[in-house]
Amino acid sequence: MSAASAIQSSVQPLPKRDTLKIRHRLWIWLGALAGTALVLGVAIYGMHYYMLPLAARVRSPQHSLLRPSGFVGRSLGIVGLAMFAIMFLYPLRKRLSFLSGWGTTKNWLDYHIVLGVIAPMLITFHASFKLMNGIAGAAYWIMIVVALSGIIGRYLYSSIPRRIDEAEMTMDEMRQLSDDLATQIEGQGVFSAEELRPLFEMPPIERVQAMPLWRALVVILSLDVRRTAQLVRLRWRHGSKSQDHEEFVRVLAAIKKQASLVKNIVFLSRLSQMFQLWHVIHRPFSYSFAALALLHIIVVTVLGFFWA
């Protein structure tokens, strides 16, 4: 085989699923960067104005632009509203057949989260940090609760192991995957068993089942933080000494996945309970925010403030 043929045969196109995944990540990063740039641009431009006392803002030359009904303030409100409208397509996706075929649930959730982080910041600048005014103030703080609970919901969603088709793994599937990973880890010669033992230490299942949900969530968070710190320590200690970098990265990825999987197996029933409870709490707040935001828009439009 010639050198050209060898190179051509070794360079294979990425599978379609991997290509779509890379494209999705690119769009997510571009959207996050664009939103961050917009927020930083408004913050830098209006820093002096936003730091003024409310009574002194009227005399600022930026007041006509940055007040809620000014060109910039109103535009930020419209963009934030459009983002929230797109976000509400995510819960409607299961009910609207023409949306259900577009993308995966995980991809929709990623866009939902990016918009859910950026939109509240834009609304904050739209309100010019006047956050206690009647209907708008109530809608704002409910929005903050929805955003914070959304972050918790994303964490819980990602903690429940899933197959490639986004369906939740059964306990048998998780145990099989855990056994496969354990076999890979046992055959590696990079890390000692003593170094890996803290990563796989978990509280007994009986004690986990007896925990209140709030305490189980705290324990899960602390285990994730501890696991991250331990993996960073292992990478720092052995990364520079490794003879085969690709093997080192592969083994470390298997250890990370196994440590996370062991935790999720122990806490699976509590994670499912938390996720169900999260839905019960998150949805009413989301719908309350939507109703108050719509009422706010109607009021300011009828009273003539929208174009004032």
What does this structure look like?
The chain has helices at residues 3-10, 16-51, 54-57, 63-66, 71-87, 89-92, 97-100, 105-126, 134-159, 171-186, 193-196, 205-210, 213-238, 245-302. With 308 residues, the protein is mostly helical. The protein has two domains: 17-52 and 61-164 and 281-302, no CATH class; 171-271, no CATH class. α2 packs parallel to α8 and α9 packs antiparallel against α14 (245-302). The termini are far apart. Residues 1-12 have low confidence and may be disordered.
Please write out the topology.
Blueprint (H helix, E strand, L loop, with lengths): L2 H8 L5 H36 L2 H4 L5 H4 L4 H17 L1 H4 L4 H4 L4 H22 L7 H26 L11 H16 L6 H4 L8 H6 L2 H26 L6 H58 L6
Summarize the structure.
By secondary structure, the protein is an all-alpha fold. The chain has helices at residues 3-10, 16-51, 54-57, 63-66, 71-87, 89-92, 97-100, 105-126, 134-159, 171-186, 193-196, 205-210, 213-238, 245-302.
H/E element order: HHHHHHHHHHHHHH
Secondary structure tally, helices:
14
What structural class do you assign from the helix and strand content? mainly alpha
* Overall pLDDT score: 82
Gap from first CA to last CA:
76 Å
The helicity comes to over 70%
**Total beta strand runs:** 0
Q: How would you sum up the major sheet?
A: none
- Portion in strands: under 5%
Q: How large is the radius of gyration? A: 25 Å
The best one-word shape is elongated
Uncertain residue ranges: 1-12
| Whole-number count of domains | 2
